[in-house]
Each structure stands twice: as C-alpha cells, then as structure tokens.
Design a protein that fits this description.
Length: 68
C-alpha cells in the first residue's frame, strides 16, 4: 500500500468515526465534493493545503492524518 492509499484510508476512517458523509466533509473542508472520493481511494497526490483543510474539517492535527 502506498502513502496516498494509506492517507486516503485514514481520511475515510476519521470521516466515518465522526459520522460525516463525503459530501459534508468536502463542504467543511471547502474542497469539491467529487475530489474527496478520489482522495479516499488513494488516487490523488494532495497538496499540503488540502491536508490542512481536511485536518481542520475533521478537527484533528495534521499528524493524525498520517498515523497508522
């Protein structure tokens, strides 16, 4: 499993733990709703800005998105 896939799975895990739909998380993170599923599948090499937006929307620290 590569880093993009690991990151995507962590985002999905945290999103589900917070009972958020993909659309709701995308809205909270101010990213396009069609972008989030590709992140969760590990298909995107996201920018640090998107990492920060996701961390804020999930109310976690950036490092938490990389913890295994």
């Amino acid at each position: 499993m590569n880093i993009k896939q690991k990151f995507g799975l962590k985002v999905k895990e945290l999103r589900k733990a917070k009972n958020l739909s993909q659309e709701r998380l995308a809205n909270l993170a101010e990213i396009d709703r069609t972008y989030l599923p590709t992140i969760e599948k590990g298909e995107r090499n996201v920018s640090i800005e998107v990492v920060e937006k996701l961390a804020k929307a999930l109310d976690v620290k950036i490092k938490d998105l990389f913890d295994e």
